[in-house]
Amino acid sequence: MDIAYIPSPSRGVLHLGPIPLRAYAFCIILGVVAAVWLGSKRWVARGGAKHTVGDIAVWAVPFGLVGGRLYHVITDHQLYFGEGKNPWNAFKIWEGGLGIWGAVALGAVGAWIGCRRRGVPLPAYADAIAPGIALAQAMGRWGNYFNQELYGRATTLPWGLEIHKTLPDGEVVNGVFHPTFLYESIWDVAVALLVIWADRRWKLGHGRAFALYVAAYTVGRFWTEWLRIDEAHVYFGLRLNDWTSIVVFIGAVAYLVIVGKKRPGREDPASIDPAAHAEAEAAGEKAAGDRAADEKAVAGKALAGKAAAAKAKGEGPSETVAGDKPSHIVDGDGGAEADPQPAAAASTAAEKTGKDAENPI
After folding, report:
1. Confidence of residue 28 (pLDDT cuts 50, 70, 90)
2. Mean pLDDT lowest for which of 35-44, 267-276, 291-300?
3. 29-46 b/e (C-beta count within 10 Å ≥ 16 → b)
């Protein structure tokens, strides 16, 4: 009975007319969206404005992509430079090749610029975005699956990954290998959950949640890197990225311990994002305006109700019916005012004297 291994994708790119739609790029984009979404929720929960994470990501993401590509090209320069190599391939990012350490390092520079522009402390921002970065890495690793790259040693395990591809040098690869992309993707999701749990449990602040993410990630990366068989520089029996993981792990743990002693707890929510105050003021003004409008509407309805009730009881002015003259209220007297014509005639008669007075017409 054959074991059902993980099959390789039939293709990693679809064509919409002349436009190529690459799965690797979609995995990266989905990862960025997930990181910004989760980071925004965490930032708002810490007291920040809801658009701050996205605004800073506009700086951090491009810097991170450039940094990740630079790290890959520098550490694997033999793939692009030398006899028989095409240096222009170094720009073909869609074919894979992003070094996480370069992405984090240069992405931090972009985030720092964005934070400076928004008046936001970088450590607080890093704590909010840390689980989102791990989640983005988990999604991005599936791009390696579609490109059939960065797999591990040959294996007979049931979850082995079938590879059928031709390398640039013409070598054909057919076999079943460790799906290191899957191992790291699962590990990254676990790291994201670990950081979220630890942050809730111990209220990590001042960059400690980000340091925990870095330390936890390097542990899994060391193991998956040890399984990989793609070409890499080896020093003292370990691949370059393994040594990098060791150094970064030590630095992250040291940061956790030192900052945890000097600055325990989190930053004051009122101090991390000036834009949050502007949003709160705008929301307060809008709420006050809405309340005033509601009160005015209620008062108008009350007056209308009173007028309708008075009209129903007949307390208002009488209406003209069948040509009768309307009555007039004078000086608050409820009686009807007399017709002015008889009064004028009486005044004229009183002025007559003698014969005229005795013989009125």
Report:
1. very high
2. 291-300
3. ebbbebbbebbbebbbeb
Nearest to 72 by CA among 93, 103, 97: 97
195: buried, middle or exposed (CB in 10 Å: 19+, 13-18, 0-12)?
buried
Looking at this protein, which amino acid is placed at residue 136? A
Cα separation, 7 vs 182, in Å, equals 13
Contact 137, 187 (CB under 8 A): no
Closest to 228 measured CA to CA, from 174, 150, 315 = 150
Which pLDDT tens digit goes with each residue over 46-96? 999 999 999 999 999 999 999 999 999 998 888 888 887 889 989 888 878
Q: How far apart are CA 68 and CA 140, in angstroms?
A: 12
CA–CA separation, 129 vs 43, rounded Å?
8
The answer for residues whose C-beta is within 8 angstroms of residue 134's C-beta and 6 or more apart is 188, 189, 191, 192, 195, 213, 217
**Whole-number Å distance between alpha carbons of 265 and 46:** 12
Query: How many other C-beta atoms lie within 10 A of the C-beta of residue 206?
Result: 21
Query: Which pLDDT value is given to residue 354?
Result: 42
